[in-house]
Amino acid sequence: GAVVSQHPSWVICKSGTSVKIECRSLDFQATTMFWYRQFPKQSLMLMATSNEGSKATYEQGVEKDKFLINHASLTLSTLTVTSAHPEDSSFYICSAANPNSGSYEQYFGPGTRLTVT
Amino acid sequence: DQQVKQNSPSLSVQEGRISILNCDYTNSMFDYFLWYKKYPAEGPTFLISISSIKDKNEDGRFTVFLNKSAKHLSLHIVPSQPGDSAVYFCAASRMDSSYKLIFGSGTRLLVRP
């Protein structure tokens, strides 16, 4: 299967600072990338969908000004958590898809554990 | 409104026996379903999928069954192995919805040696 990486794998930041998380598809061109967050023992909640070269589409209830998403190339999408607060502490996971291949499968990154103190 | 539900948060099975994980959905527009396996602090790994034009798909020890009239799907693992112990998520998608996946809440499977 395709490989998706995330960096960093974990990060601790102070309240009020911003954190950037990178998601890379290593061996295929991801025209579409998704960002999820997962709270302990809960499901993956889709935050936003990003298509290369266009603005991200955010799910209802997700603040676009707080969670900035950039998908500038076919292999890289970034999520920036701005002015982070302790309630933003979560496990953030990205996935990548290539709809042009005809496959609906999403390939997930290993996730990033964010802790805001 | 939870569109995809996994009502069993956990399941314990003896090694060698069959594991059956269930998933229900409410949106009749879903036409593609997937099962993912997830270990703690890792991203989900794709296991098997099925489109709504089929009622069964098999891949090795994994078989997914789809009952559209009941809006129900299940994942069968046989024989179960201790390495199968993980959290299993079912997900549903609409082929006209930019490939968005809606996930269930997951079922933690423990396969006892």
Describe the overall structure.
The complex is a heterodimer of chains A (117) and B (113). Chain A has 117 residues and is an all-beta fold. In chain A, 0% of the residues lie in helices and 51% in strands. Chain A has no helices and eleven strands. Chain A has strands at 4-7, 10-13, 19-25, 32-38, 44-51, 57-58, 67-73, 76-81, 90-97, 107-108, 112-116. In chain A, strands 2, 4, 5, 6, 9, 10 and 11 form a seven-stranded mixed β-sheet that branches. In chain A, strands 1-3-8-7 form a four-stranded antiparallel β-sheet, with no helix packed on it. The mean pLDDT of chain A is 90. Chain B contains no helices and eleven strands. Chain B has strands spanning 4-5, 10-14, 19-25, 32-38, 45-51, 56-59, 62-67, 72-77, 86-93, 101-103, 107-112. The model of chain B has no long low-confidence stretch (mean pLDDT 93). Chain B has 113 residues and is mainly beta. In chain B, the strands form two sheets. In chain B, strands 2, 4, 5, 9, 10 and 11 form a six-stranded mixed β-sheet that branches. The radius of gyration of chain B is 13 Å and the shape is globular. In chain B, strand 7 (62-67) and strand 8 form a beta hairpin. In chain B, 0% of the residues lie in helices and 54% in strands. The A-B interface holds A 1, 4, 6, 32, 34, 42-46, 49, 51, 57, 91, 93, 95, 97, 99, 104-111, 113 and B 32, 34, 36, 41-46, 49, 89, 93, 95, 98-106.
Number of helical runs of chain B? 0
Q: Can you give the helix content of chain A as a percent range?
A: under 10%
Largest sheet of chain A: 7 strands, mixed
Specify the number of helices of chain A.
Answer: 0
Total count of strands of chain B:
11
Helix content of chain B: under 10%
Give the rounded overall mean pLDDT of chain A: 90
Radius of gyration of chain B: 13 Å
What is the oligomer described by this structure?
A: heterodimer
Strand content of the residues of chain B, in percent? over 45%
Could you spell the SSE succession of chain B in H and E letters? EEEEEEEEEEE
Kindly report the greatest chain-chain contact and the residue count on each side: A-B, 27 and 22 residues
